[in-house]
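Key idea: predict the complex, not the pieces.
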Amino acid sequence: MTLVNRALQSGDAYLAAAVYAAAGAPQRKTLSALLFATAKRKRQFGAAIYAPGAVLDVLASDSDPKVRLRVARNPAAPTAALARLAEPEPSPEMAAAIASHANTGPGILERLARSSDRSVRLALCGNRNTPPAVLQQLLADGDLAEMKAAAANPSADADILTALWAGGDLYVRAEVAAHAAASEAILREALSSGEPIIRRKVAANPALDTASLETLLDDPVGAVRAAAVRNLVPGGQAADELAGDPCFQVRRAEARHAGLKPDVARRLSADRDAWVRRWLARNPATPGDVLERLAADGELEVRRGVGRNSASPAALVRQLAQDPAAWVRAGIALRDDVAEDILLTLGQEDDPDVLSAVGRNVRTPESLLIRIAQHHDADVRRSVVLNRAAPREALRLLAEDPYPLNRAMLARHGNLSVSDLEPMLGDPEPQVRFTAASALIKRANTN
Amino acid sequence: MGEILVVAEHRQGQLNPATLETIAAAVNLKGGSDRKIAVAVLAENPDDFVGQVGKAGVDEIVKVPVGVASFQSDTYEAAVLALAEARKPSVIMLPHTVDTWGYAPAVAVRGGFGCATDVFEAKYDGDELVAVRAAYAEKLHMEVDFPGKDTVVLTVRTNVFKPSEDDASPSVSDFAAPPAEARTTHMKFIEPEQTGDVDITQAEYMLSIGRGVGEEDNVEEFKELADTLGFTLGCSRPIADNGWLPKSRQVGQSGKTVAKCKVYVALGISGSVQHMAGMKHVPNIIAVNKDAEASIFTIARYGIVGDMFEIAEELREQM
Amino acid sequence: MKILVPVKQIGVVDEDFELRGDGKDVDPDFLNFEANEWDDYSYEAALQIMEAADGVEVVPVTVGPDDAEDVLRRCLAKGGERGIRVWDDALEDASPAAIVQVLAKVVEKEQPDMVFTGTLSSDRSYAQTGVGLAAALGWPHAAVITGIEWKPGDPKATLLRELEGGLVEQLSVNCPVVLTIQLGINTPRYASLRGVKQAKEKPVEDLSLADLGLSGDDLAAAGGSFRVRRMYKPETGQAELIEGTPAEQAARLVEIINELKGAA
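Result:
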């Protein structure tokens, strides 16, 4: 029996939703009768982010305004559906929903800009797809809230930003100072601003040159220095003296910097602030001798950081696999470069975090996954479902998992066979049926 | 015109401040009428509390000695029913608390009284008592009345009515409660455990992160922020599933219920049914999410439609 | 030995709901029906006692229309062999007082040794049914229970009761007893797929008011706990949106957090 027939015969709206896009025109008609049987059902699918585009497309033309509004507010709504919803005179609520939607096309946004409704205008000012010319037009008589939204909009160009810098309040100017498209003149003004927030924002501007950043490293305000350190390109002059900066924010930023130099790392490794050491432990630029020292840190999160650091040498990883703290061992079990014997040892534990990490590790051998798939804790069992390399033999043990979410997530797994998926079409949980049907369709299409 | 009878509540020798709020609710209900307000103190030694409940508006304090030091449902029920029988109050008002959950409905059933719980407004519409309470997870309010009921039991939501600062000198009377067979026996109070481990079920202030956090190193930034704020870090399921935070930090179905939480800052959490099951009861939910339509905003008290990273960075800079 | 567990189908309102024509409730078309969360815990508590001893029967009972049978099946999928559903059109919009009368008759008929209810149901949150039922039966009762130590035959049960501020009271209670069970007392199980299948075959006894020796007039004569005048959408209940740039929003958040911390 085809999936479409099965959906029709079972009268299951969730199966119908999953197969709708794949069905031909005559079948779609019958499926529609099932899918859109009641206003409640239409509202439900209209708001569902899992609803296929084809279903949302149909609902965008529904006669019930509540249904249409839900589609407009659904992040999954396709561009064409939104365009249709914008015709001819959308209600203010509808217009605002379309104006703020990430999938709305520039043409529709431009048309909506004729609206005088405040929430529509505000949404347009914040929408990154709004063309600069439309932004400019909106700002010609824009209020402060609209200026704020536009100042943070990546679509704002240098001209708009210059106007905002001149006409906005402190917060508008702070946003402009951080904007990558801000003009040279604005950046220079911001650098010498008396307002720390402006200097902090310009210090975070990705377009700021290294020389300017370096002057900000001497700023009297710690938060400004820290922002400048974070923005320094790796390999640049990550000023050594900042390892001794009195402001912990600066030292933390230094400790996590990609261009961290070995001797700076060494100096920071004994920092009183645990967060400096935590960031250092996670930094791939931290040299081996420092990592070794941090692996013996009294703070378990520092040791966990070393265990999560991709640059940590195998010997250190092996040492941390025996750490007294389960959270540290769990971090080791998550590594995709960990030796199999370590996984086998950690797989004997009963700590849920350690076991789950082993369960989702692509290097864990099948026999161990089979054991984890039968663990009494539903979260631990789910880790096998989350393991993209898990073999079918382990996965099928979860086909009748009592926890519905585990079954729903299982239905998405690529290593499940068609014969494993088919029984899931009769699952008591709608989410499982829908996911299983979607997976079967995907396979039919790729075969 | 029957009086308004407030029943005081206390535990471990301390008057529950909700008692004073309930008195304020009674004063509010009385309005300009000449209805009397009496406060009944059921206690082993009612005198311990008499001085504390004589607030402005109270006409009389009724001392009701009972043989138990702490709340006992049968004893309290019998005493309140006897008071109702003797004094014929129009309204019996109690704070909406764990103790009254345990006996107010029983008083109403046994007395054949009207009853509405968790009431945050009570007023007279002519002679008709009208109470207002919430329904459907606070999404609606419902106005109820009590046709044919001479006495109505109301339990009053806490933190709504402001207690009066002013004391009065009400008259004090004695009332002998009838003996009641106590069918439950208090054994002991157990203080909440102070464990060294993080126990999110006991946390009062929480910062919680969801899928929007993106990658493991970003999780560290939010841990750092939580530390700075002095909040306990929690998460939604996908974060724990990824192994980025321990399972013990997961809020919601298959995770934990943050039973003691007062302020919950949800960052990048869309608000799945599963997650909300563990935190929707928190009185002060602050949600930050990019998607203005995210379900989390339907239960939040404060909302920010925006980027969790930008807000987090600014919070860190400004704390 | 039998434990009766009253459970309830609750309505969760949709975002853009509308009120019923008479304005006294939400239009049912805008309600999504679910099992009450608290009842998962009370049912689990009963199942755990059943599994720890021989000869214990757990019977779920609900007062609700046809489709409320789902909540009984949901229970039976986890354990228990039969359920009871009581319905009569006269019970539409019934207040707790009426539900209490109905359940008291079911108790009379079933003669259970214990009754476990949820502390409250999340739709109306009356929190009256369990304790009201105990009063109608003349049974001992305790509310907001987070721990039960009891086995069949024990004349007393030792309970934990969750109080404000994390304080817990330990108390003992004479049996039979009505307990209202609080979230977190246990970890409710999920039904196995086989359990779900088997539950479809388990008997559910449908009772009318007449079957229980009651009539709509009886309920009306006794009067409800209250009468609903109207429902309405409150002004509040919507999140207060904090506007401005992130820096501004964060500044306001810091203020709010400090206020809330100060007030606590």
